[in-house]
């Protein structure tokens, strides 16, 4: 009888811990691994980062230069169930592979900004941006002519990767709605400290 009671208490404790961990990684803070080269030289493939989900949870617009995780499927509605299913802990527990719709990019334009791509530079509100974080000093024009010059709508941001020659970003899919900004990078690490 004592063994059954002990197993029951352990099971309840583990269930509570799992639920709390899922809530934390869904709505507060989430560890992530960088995949790909679109944010080089700032972030390398296989770097580890921590993402604050508070900006997404509280519906806050990120600022210029913030590195954010976006949901690139901007035509699909975000739901609470999608939030849980795309959280890293849920994917780890269920054995799902990484979410391919989650991209790591830098905020270049905020609501109301007019962005233009000419002379291999990004112009924001008529002034060329100084972007020391980019891999290449030039910026290729958008592959979609629709985004050669764009005014960022209300409740949207325009994002780009730092490795401009090797990045899918707002030049391909357009401005990102605020509810598709899933979080903001707060810490970068060369390796995961818990291995």
Write up what this structure looks like:
The protein has 195 residues and is of the alpha+beta class. It has a single domain (32-78, 100-189), classed as Umud Fragment, subunit A, CATH 2.10.109.10. Helices cover 25% and strands 27% of the residues. It is built from 5 helices and 11 strands. The protein has helices spanning 2-27, 54-57, 80-86, 88-94, 170-173, and strands spanning 29-33, 48-52, 67-71, 102-109, 114-118, 121-124, 127-128, 149-151, 156-160, 176-177, 181-189. The strands form 2 sheets. A 7-stranded antiparallel beta sheet has the order 1-2-11-3-4-9-10. β5 (114-118) and β6 form a beta hairpin. The radius of gyration is 19 Å and the shape is elongated. The chain starts with a helix and ends in a 6-residue tail after the last strand. The model has no long low-confidence stretch (mean pLDDT 84). It is a single-pass type II membrane protein. It comes from Melghirimyces profundicolus. One of its GO terms (molecular function) is signal peptidase activity.
């Amino acid at each position: 009888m004592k063994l059954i009671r002990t197993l029951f208490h352990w099971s309840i404790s583990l269930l509570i811990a799992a639920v709390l961990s899922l809530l934390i990684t869904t709505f507060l803070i989430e560890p992530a691994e960088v995949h790909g080269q679109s944010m080089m030289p700032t972030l390398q493939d296989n770097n580890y980062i921590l993402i604050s989900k508070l900006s997404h949870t509280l519906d806050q617009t990120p600022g210029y230069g913030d590195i954010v995780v976006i949901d690139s499927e901007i035509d699909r509605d975000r739901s609470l169930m999608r939030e849980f299913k795309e959280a890293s802990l849920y994917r780890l527990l269920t054995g799902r592979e990484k979410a391919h719709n989650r991209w790591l990019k830098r905020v270049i334009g905020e609501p109301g900004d007019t962005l233009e791509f000419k002379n291999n530079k990004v112009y924001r509100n008529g002034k060329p941006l100084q972007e020391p974080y980019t891999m290449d000093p030039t910026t290729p024009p958008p592959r979609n002519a629709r985004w050669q010059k764009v005014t960022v709508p209300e409740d949207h941001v325009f994002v780009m990767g730092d490795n401009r020659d090797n990045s899918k970003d707002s030049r391909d899919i357009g401005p990102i709605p605020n509810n598709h900004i899933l979080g903001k990078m707060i810490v970068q690490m060369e390796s995961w400290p818990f291995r």
